[in-house]
Amino acid sequence: MFLFLTELLAGSAILNLPAWLVARRRQEATWWLPFLGAPAILAWVALLALGVGPQSLSNIVEVMALAVLSIVPCYAQVFYLNRRFPNVRRTSACLALLLIAAAILLRLFMPLLPE
Fold this sequence. Notes:
The protein is an all-alpha fold.
């Protein structure tokens, strides 16, 4: 499980690298922008360990959805939100909090999936 989660984090970070390089060139990048989904994935793991939501091996789909979902806000920040909101760190933090909220909602409302 640890290896799987590490691969998810690394995969989403690799897919976020082009956006980070563009933001870095514009000097609008935070160092943790490629890892924007990491807090959400860690929150999902914590909720899973606490027993929140249905406990099934098939619900691993939720964390994969979070990893894929974390790519969209990264590109949205670099190509749209940084122009609209000048405080890059605050924007990154807000996006990370939105992804954590998505993790909580997934754990609370995702039905039990059959294995």
